[in-house]
Amino acid sequence: MPPETEGLSVNSSLILRILGDRSAGKTTYLAALARGGNNNSDNPIQLVEAFNDDGKKLVDYAQNVLEQGLMLQTTKLVDQSSLPDYGLQITVKGGSDWRNQTISKIPFNCKDYPGEFFSDLLRQSSNEMKFLNDYLEDCLEANGILFLIDGLAHQKDANYAQGLNLFLDAWSRSKYKERRFALALTKCEQPELANNREQPKTLATQRFPNVCKRLETWSKSGYGSVEYFTCSAFGMLDGYHPVANAKKIKRDREGLTSVIKEPKYWQPFGLVAPIYWLHTGKRYAALDKY
Amino acid sequence: MTKIQIQEFSTGIRYQTDPNGNWVSLGFTGQYINVTEPNIPQEIIRAIANKDFAVAERGLGHDPATIGREIRGTDSSWSVIALVSQGQDEKGRPGSFYRFLWCEGLNLASIIEWISNYQQNHNRQPVFNPNEQPKPMADYQVSHREDPPNLSDVATLPDSLPILLKPEDQHHDLSRIHTLAVTKANGQPISWAVNAEALEKPWNFTVIKAASDRAYQIFQKSIANKPKEVAPAAFDEQALKSAIKSLIGSSIVKLEAISTFMEALGTTQISDTYWNSLFDGQGAQNALDQNIYSPQMVRLLTLKLIAIPDFLQEYLKWIGIEDVLSRKGVNDRIGASLEFQSKIKNEIENSSVTIKRLRRILINASRIDDDSRIFESIGDRLKFNNLDLNLANIYYKAATYNINMQEGIPKKLWVKAFPSSLNDREIAFDKTVNKQRSTEVSKSLAIILTISSFIFGIVFGAGGLSLFQGFSKADNSTDNTTPIIDPPQSQPSGTNGNSSGRSPNGQQRNTPTSSPSPIQTPIANPSPTSSPQPSSTPSGR
Question: Which of A73, A86, A103, A125 to mutate against chain B (most B CBs within 10 Å)?
Answer without folding.
Answer: A73
